[in-house]
Design brief:
Elements: H1 2-16, H2 20-27, H3 42-49, H4 51-76, H5 82-100, H6 113-122, H7 126-145, H8 148-169, H9 175-195, H10 197-205
Length: 218
């Protein structure tokens, strides 16, 4: 079983490292690193080559996190053992780190929002429900304030809160078994927020672009 996890972690990182946004832009003869925010992500890709490609890229980046989690979950079932939960989380974290620090692009990648969302969806049922709540927060913030970056930050903050409330409200969710999830639910959003530090500066300065202008730094 440990050999399965070790292989899954390596494969998840390599899959997470696939820079879909960069490749799509490259197919158009553009280097995404020199356009807009320079970020290798779906929003910057939408700015460079069109929204439909941005949506496609978001889906592909999400699948980079979802696919290894679902496959490993199908092999091990739904573990309540903290040890197996920790190893399952490491698979997801490897995919996220692959996106943020891709080996194929000298470890300079995206911000990890879509891939983190995919990882959360794949860790059923604990993270899946929290991911749905975080997505609802993301949509609400975009609709109200029109900032993709702010929506991503708010969704990241809401994620550990949703998990903590779930542990308190759902009888068979016990913190003694799910403590690895609590740690990951804090660490992963922190990583996402840190990757948005430039957006935070622009939001504070009032210079961040809104989604309606089709130009956001997220």
């Amino acid at each position: 079983m440990y050999a399965v996890f070790a292989a899954a972690i390596v494969v998840a990182y390599l899959l997470g490292s696939v820079p879909f946004a960069f490749l799509i832009a490259w197919a158009y003869g553009k280097d995404l690193r020199t356009i807009g925010s320079g970020n290798i992500g779906a929003t910057n890709l939408a700015r460079a080559v069109g929204r439909k490609w941005g949506y496609l890229c978001f889906g592909l980046d999400m699948l980079k996190g979802l696919t290894p989690m679902v496959i490993v979950g199908a092999v091990i079932g739904v573990p309540e053992n903290p040890g197996f939960l920790s190893l399952w989380l490491l698979v997801g974290l490897a995919a996220i780190l692959g996106h943020v620090f891709p080996v194929y692009l000298r470890f300079k990648g995206g911000k990890g929002v879509a891939t983190s969302f995919g990882v959360a969806l794949g860790l059923w049922p604990y993270f899946t429900l929290c991911a749905v709540i975080a997505l609802a927060v993301w949509v609400a913030v975009v609709l109200i304030w029109h900032y993709v970056s702010l929506a991503s930050i708010c969704a990241a903050v809401s994620f550990p809160i949703a998990l903590a409330l779930g542990i308190l409200a759902i009888p068979n969710w016990h913190s003694t078994n799910l403590w690895p999830l609590l740690i990951a639910a804090v660490v992963i959003p922190i990583l996402v927020i840190v990757r948005h530090r430039e957006n935070i500066h622009r939001l504070a300065a009032g210079t961040e672009s809104k989604v309606r202008s089709r130009a956001s730094g997220s």
